[in-house]
Amino acid sequence: MRGRSMDEHMSSGKLDRRMIIRAGAAAGGAYVLAALGCASGTRTTRDFRDREPLPPPRDPYRPSAPRQRPRLSAEPAAPIVEPGVIARAAWTRQGPAMHLAERMHGINVITVHHDGMSPFQTTNQSEAMERLELIRQAHRGLGWADIGYHYAIDPAGRVYACRPLELQGAHVRDHNHHNLGVVVLGNYERQTPTPEALRALQGFIVSRMHAFGVRPNRVVTHQELRPSACPGRSLQARMVEARHSGGVIATA
Predict the structure, then answer these.
(1) Tens-digit pLDDT profile for the chain (252 aa)?
(2) Which residues are within 8 A (CB) of 187 and not within 5 positions of it... i.e. 6 or more apart?
(3) What three-state secondary structure class fits 10?
(4) What totals of helices (H) and strands (E) does the chain contain, helices first?
């Protein structure tokens, strides 16, 4: 990475697994830089922390009542068994750092992301789970409570449970409150989503809309809330189509 900043590598879409590992090792610990392309703007440890400053009152994605921080138990609640969703225990043995986490207190927004790393097209489940664990370690290295997203979808269309639903995510700065984060593994500035991933994403979003009473106009992408390339040009275009009149999300 000599001669170029991490942000420049991210914006060019050329950040890969080896680069992340080298960057973390150079900083004194693997993954500590956690330079994932989904992040937007100039990153600092505080940028996407779960305990970030309150946004202005005009923020439409914030509840009007003042937020209070309840005391969380040392252990997360027992995981919910969700049909068709691969349990978190299948890809990591590590739980969230509860002392850094906040309760979700309801969901009224769903935000779609890509991971923004190197293109990822394999349908191998073991490799998808390794990538998820890489992201989790990167996010923990930033001082976050856990992987930032609540769910992930791989190119084969598998859906994985990530951050427990009881906990607020860490995926869009200033807009994490009541916001369900879903990431599609891959870089959709440099690749297109597989038909399997796209079907899984749209079907899963619709199921979450029904489960939590989320309106179609509250299904958004990262770049629609903050300056970012995420979820990449090709996935952004598919999301726009799905929300247009007659689209899968619009008619949910």
Answers:
(1) 434 433 334 434 444 545 444 444 433 333 333 345 575 433 333 334 333 333 333 333 344 444 444 555 556 556 666 889 999 999 999 999 999 999 999 999 999 999 999 999 999 999 999 999 999 999 999 999 999 999 999 999 999 999 999 999 999 999 999 999 999 999 999 999 999 999 999 999 999 999 999 999 999 999 999 999 999 999 999 999 999 999 999 999
(2) 13, 37, 114, 115, 116, 117, 118, 119, 120, 232
(3) helix
(4) 6, 6
Global confidence as pTM: 0.75
| Contact yes or no for 157/199 (Cβ under 8 A) | yes
CA dist., res. 132 & res. 89, Å (int): 12
Return the number of other C-beta atoms located less than 10 Å from residue 71's C-beta.
7
Residue type, 120: F
Residue type (1 letter), 210: H
Domain spans of the chain, in order of start: 6-48+86-243
The CATH topology of domain 6-48+86-243 is Lysozyme-like (3.40.80)
In angstroms, rounded to a whole number, what is the distance separating the alpha carbons of residues 249 and 252? 5
Which residues lie closer than 8 Å to 150 by C-beta, 6 or more apart?
161, 162, 163, 164, 165, 169, 180, 181, 182
Pick the closest to residue 187 from 17, 6, 2, 3 (CA basis).
17
Within 8 A by CB and 6+ apart from 101, the residues are 50, 72, 145, 146, 167, 168
Q: How far apart are CA 169 and CA 48, in angstroms?
A: 10
